[in-house]
Amino acid sequence: MKIVEKKKLWFSISGLIILIGIGFFIYRGGLNLGIDFKGGTEVIIQIDKSFKKEDADQLIKKHAPNAVTNTVNNNQIQIRDKAEELNSAKVKDIMTDVKDKYKVDDKALVSQNEIGASVGKELTKNALIALTLAILGMLVYVAVRFKWDFGIAAIIALLHDVLITLSMYTIFNISVNSSFIAAILTIIGYSMNDTVVIFDRIRENLKSKRGSSPAEVANISIAATMSRSINTSLTTLIAIASVYVLVPSIRDFTFPLMVGIFSGAFSSIFIASPIWVMLKEWEAKKNNK
């Protein structure tokens, strides 16, 4: 199985997705930041009876076309939008339609909260700090357990997963909220775990196959761990996809998880290992000179 020798193909696939993501990022003027980062209004309405989310969405988007809606506890609907687009007048109009359709009273408006832009800036800062600390922690862990070349390859694979996930958000113009940060941190941990399994096998094979080249060692190690990586990722994806379909209220969290787990499995096999081989070959050329 020659995985490493086809590295240009694997790098091209990832590079194309990231380039498309960058194109949409430039075209749309950045990520579609939700109210957690930009500030806005959050409204929760209690309906107290079974209702179809699609019907409620149609009613709400008549007044706030860009609003993001979720069901809460199966009997509430959460509406989130920018403050200038979901003002008090529009909330009043929405409540009028909700009262007519679902026969509720004024008490159905459980809450109406505004999130200031300063809160969004603080959240953005904390999110970047959390992401930086997570990546640094992973780098230290790999550097201690393995060598510097493994650490660099693992961090590049992690950055690849983050960029792929961000690209999917820009391509499909999905709103980025606080749940996205939790998902990214989960993806980093999952991807690193997958990468470490392959690197551990590479380290073992470096000792037992001393006469083999780095590419041969990597290919043997990937072949030995590929079925485990694919099966683990596939079962996890099936579980998360089921949650995505059956629990709409947490789709903001499950969607990036699905993208990240798929990307993490891909990067562990087709990105991290070839990069490690490239670093080993560069190191060998340097020593020969």
From TrEMBL:
* Gene Ontology terms describing biological process: intracellular protein transmembrane transport; protein targeting; protein transport by the Sec complex
The record's subcellular location field reads: Cell membrane
Q: Where are the transmembrane segments?
A: 9-27, 127-144, 151-172, 178-199, 230-247, 253-279
Question: Which residue intervals define the domain Protein export membrane protein SecD/SecF C-terminal in the entry?
Answer: 103-281
Pfam families per record: Sec_GG (PF07549), SecD_SecF_C (PF02355)
Cellular component GO terms, alphabetical? plasma membrane
Task: Using the UniProt record, give the first listed, main subcellular location.
Answer: membrane
Q: List the coiled-coil residues.
A: none
- Cite the SUPFAM superfamilies for this sequence: Multidrug efflux transporter AcrB transmembrane domain
Q: Give a short account of what the protein does.
A: Part of the Sec protein translocase complex. Interacts with the SecYEG preprotein conducting channel. SecDF uses the proton motive force (PMF) to complete protein translocation after the ATP-dependent function of SecA.
Q: How does it assemble?
A: Forms a complex with SecD. Part of the essential Sec protein translocation apparatus which comprises SecA, SecYEG and auxiliary proteins SecDF. Other proteins may also be involved.
Name of the protein? Protein-export membrane protein SecF
